[in-house]
Amino acid sequence: MPRARALARALARAVDATARVALDGASMRATCARMPTKPNDARAVATARTRARAYSVGQMVHRDVPEDNSTMTWTFEASVRPKVDAILRRYPSNYKRSAMIPLLDLAQQQNKGHLTLAMMNHIADVLEVAPIRVYEVATFYSMFNRQKMGKLHVMVCGTTPCMLRGSREIEKALEEWMGVKKFETTACGTFTLGEMECMGCCVNAPMIAVADYRNGVEGYSYNYYEDLTPQTAVKVCEALKAGKSPRVGSQIRDKAEPIKGLTTLTGDPPGPFSRDLDQIKADVDAAAAAAAAAAAEKK
């Protein structure tokens, strides 16, 4: 009987799961049927439904526009070609596709913040792969942007440690200071306010990352600013806008040391024990010489 009851419960769960899948499928079909066919209307619906989600790439489906369409061509600048060649040399010639992410990053730097269809097509030619392989990567990773960005892309960390330490307040302060909402660009084209998931500096939460595209490949930088408050986050952006170089990393301490300062290891740490190899060699040589002398005396 217990076995029969267990089988009955398992069957009931399977039937319930099947029903949920069928319901989800019907709901999806109904949603698709309701979606408008005009591009502008579709964008409006997508914006309304995804406003709370962080699509850092900005555009998951390509749409031809005058500045980004399938008739355009693109290539790496002559000054950038040595970097392209250096990247390709890292990999065997039959594994060139391994260079896809570094080349996409380099192309985005050259284009000052975003990738176009022509850029992805050119990288596909360089790597000798189908263009769809490049499209897949460029639309999967949030570090690649498919829409034009500001000269400075400010990304607020939205993961739990930073959120608990006040990242939402920082985001609100930056929205008010820039005069834009998240994922929007200022009218002057200087800033784009974005969001990024965990950047690996939880001990110094909250933090922002800033990608600086103002000077193309040669001047590109990607820096972290940590231990922020709404006020210090705004000050960092004010300094960047003024062309200054604000302090990178923690704004209140040295790296990730305790806020109240060190309480242990306050002096110079002792070096690790290591033998004096020169002295060892001298001792061995002396012992060998003594043994040779003793052997000579016996003769």
Automatic annotation (TrEMBL):
UniProt entry keywords in alphabetical sequence: 2Fe-2S, Iron, Iron-sulfur, Metal-binding, NAD, Translocase, Ubiquinone
UniProt KW Translocase keyword: yes
Biological process according to GO: mitochondrial electron transport, NADH to ubiquinone
CDD domains, A to Z: TRX_Fd_NuoE
Needed cofactors: [2Fe-2S] cluster
Pfam families in the record: 2Fe-2S_thioredx
Superkingdom: Eukaryota
GO annotations of cellular component type: catalytic complex; membrane protein complex; mitochondrial inner membrane
Tagged with keyword Lipoprotein: no
NCBIfam families tied to this protein: nuoE_fam
PANTHER family on file: NADH DEHYDROGENASE [UBIQUINONE] FLAVOPROTEIN 2, MITOCHONDRIAL, NADH DEHYDROGENASE UBIQUINONE FLAVOPROTEIN 2, MITOCHONDRIAL
Record-given protein name: Putative NADH-ubiquinone oxidoreductase
